[in-house]
Each structure stands twice: as structure tokens, then as C-alpha cells.
Amino acid sequence: MATPPIYDGAMATCEGFINSCQLYISAKPQEFPNPQIKITWVLGFMQTSMAQLFRDHFLLNEPDQIKLLYQDIYKAFSDPNKQATAIQEITTIKQGSQSSEEHVQLFKQSFMRSGYGEIAGIHEFKWSLNSPLLDKCMAIPKLPVTLDKWYDLVIWLDCQWRQAVAERKVFAVHGSGSTGAQTSTMQHTGQQQWQPPAQPTQRDPNTMQVDWNWGTFTCYNCRQSGHMARVCQNL
Questions:
Q1: pLDDT at 209
Q2: CCHC-type domain location, by residue (predicted)?
Q3: Phi and psi at residue 22, in whole multiples of 5°?
Q4: CB contact set of 193 (below 8 Å; sequence gap of 6+)
């Protein structure tokens, strides 16, 4: 099928040009998957005289379909009062289980939409923090005076705390692992730990050793050995 002729804007050939375009598009729909391609194709034949002026004006003022779609979506689903919503968010947001970095990013978004000033922002940010973290911040001798400095302080303190917790866990694992390995080794080998031999008790050289030099009994009556005076028979 032949394509439509070049159209110059003449009144006599206007209807014929339109019919030719419609007929060609209907005959080959696979070449025109969307309306934008159809529009571009038809305008491509309007190249001279008044038709060219019409084409240029149309392209200059043609509404962007995707922009119209965005506008319709915005009207249907967007927040009609963004500032009021942001103020509600910034006054109710809490850190909870989030890290400081995550909480700061969420707070920044609400703060930018709220229209709050620096002082009000600092006030709301402090009360959005977890109580232990806020206590650490308030213990700083010289508190920040800008919201950005508050962000930096909170992130720094939170990172320190999380690092300390992680290190305690590592030390606990290493300690229990060392004790367990030692016990396991002893059980596996069936050996007991070596112990030094017991040292003999040191004797006091001044202590009387009565029984060391004890000899044969001597009788005080007869001066003979072998018996005591109380049983002496030589009286």
C-alpha cells in the first residue's frame, strides 16, 4: 500500500490526506504500536507551506502525555497539605530500634518538609532520640548549637556504643572458646595437668627430737640396763 502524498495545507486535498493516513494506519497496525508514533508519522507528511507551519505549531504546543499522566496521579493520590503532614511526622517520629544513621535520614526528610526553623528542629530531634542516647548527648560539656552538629554528635555516640557492644561479644566468645578448648583437649587425651611434686615439710632444727636418741632403759637402783627402777628385783 502506498503512503499518503506530501500535504501542503491545501483545502482541496485536506480530506483526501486524512483518509489516506487513516487507511494506511488501519492496514498496517503493527507499525503503529502507540498513539505517539501515529502522530509523528502523520506530521512527517506535512512538510511544505501552511501544513509545515501547522506542524511546527503543533509540536511546540503539544501536551506531553507523560506529564499529563503524572499530574493526574498527583491529583488522585498526593498529600494536599504536605507541610501539616510533615509537622505531624516530625513531632511523632521516634528512633526506636533504628541506628542513628537511619534515624537521622528519616528526620531530615520530615524536617525539610515541615518548614521548622533550626531551634525548633533541634528541640524535636532531641526528643525523637532513645532515652539512653539522649542522656549521653546531654552529658556533653558543650552541646551543639546547629542541627547538623547534633546529627554528627548522635551518630558518633551511637557508633561508639555499638562498637563497644560488638567488642564485648567478641571477647566473651574468645574467652569461652579458650576454656572450652583446654577442657576438650584434656578429655580427648585422657591426661591430667602436670603438677609439681610435693615438697617435704621442713623441720625446725631447734625442735627436741626426744624419740630419735632413745636408748635401752637403765635402772636407777642397780644401775643395770633392761628394766626400770620401779620393777627392779635387786633391792
A1: 46
A2: 219-234
A3: -65, -40
A4: 186
Q: Are 1 and 27 in contact (CB under 8 A)?
A: yes
Cell numbers standing for residue 149 = 552538629
pLDDT for 179 equals 57
Q: CB neighbours of 114 closer than 8 A, spacing ≥ 6? A: 83, 86, 87, 89, 90, 121
Q: What residues in the chain have per-residue pLDDT under 50?
A: 207-214
Taking the CA atoms of 206, 210, 216 and 221 in sequence, report the sign of the dihedral they define: positive
Cβ atoms of residues 43 and 55 within 8 Å: yes
Q: Is residue 170 classed as helix, strand or coil in its secondary structure? A: helix
32: exposed, middle or buried (Cβ count in 10 Å: 0-12, 13-18, 19+): middle
CA torsion through residues 176, 179, 185, 187, sign: negative
Q: What is the pLDDT at residue 149? A: 93
Q: Which residues contact 35 (CB under 8 A, 6 or more apart)?
A: 65
Work out whether the CA dihedral 70, 71, 76, 80 comes out positive or negative.
positive
Provide the sign of the torsion angle of the four alpha carbons 205, 210, 211, 216, taken in this order.
Answer: positive
Q: Which three cell numbers stand for residue 17?
A: 490526506
pLDDT digits (tens, 9 = 90+) for 132-146: 889 989 998 889 999
Residue 12 CA to residue 1 CA, distance in Å, equals: 23
Check: CB of residue 45 under 8 Å from CB of residue 4: yes
Residue closest to 82 by CA, chosen among 114, 106, 108: 114
Q: What is the pLDDT of residue 195?
A: 58
